[in-house]
Amino acid sequence: MVYVKWTFLAVIAALVASFLHYTLPQHDIVRITNTDVRRIDYGDNSIFWARSTPGMQEGSANRDVMFIESFTPDGDPNVYRNEDTGWGWPPYFKVNSSNLQALARDAVSTRDAPQWMVVTHYGWRNEYLSIYPNAVKLREVDSPEVTIIPWFNIVFLSVLALIALWIWRILARFKEDRIEPLIDEAGDFMESVDDRAEGIFKRIFGGKRR
Questions:
Q1: Where are the alpha helices (DSSP H) in 24-150?
Q2: What stretches pass through the bilayer (predicted)?
Q3: Where are the domains of the chain?
C-alpha cells in the first residue's frame, strides 16, 4: 500500500512539473536567420498549437502559422512558432504576433555579423510530434554571454510553494484535529466491543476465546 501511495504522489508531481515547465516562460539567446509562414495541418498534436485566431473558422483543420528560425551561440537550430494566444491558455494575452514577426524579420543577421536576441517563449520542441515553442517576446542583447534571471518564474514558484505549504498545514491540522480523533474513537469502540464479547463468551462457556 505504501508503494502505491508514493507511486501515485510521484505521478502527480511529474504531471504538475511537466505542466509548469510547458507553461512558464523560458528564455533563449539566439541569432535569428529567417522568418517564414507555413500551412499547418493539425492532427493528434493539435493540443500543442494555439486555438484559431480571430476571424478564422473555429475547428479548422489547417491554417497559416508564422515561424521564426534561429541558431544558438553553440550552433544548434531553434525554431519557434509565432501564434497569438488571445484570452486562451496559457494566459500570455498575446495578440501581437504580426508585430513580433516584423521585429524578428528586422533582426535577421548572419554568422559573420550576428545580432543576438533574447526569445521569450513557452512550450516544447519535439521533432517526432512536430511541435514548436511559441515565441511571445523579442529583445536585443549585446552579447550571448548575458545572464538572464527568470524573475517571474522565481516569484511565481515561490508563491506556489507557499500556497502548497499552507494547504499542507491545513490538511495536517484537519487530520490531527478531526480524522485522528475519529480513528481513536473507532479503535476504542472496537476494543469495547471485543471486551464485551469476551465477557459474554466467559459467562456462557466459562473460558477465554481462542
A1: 97-106
A2: 148-168
A3: 2-148, 149-210
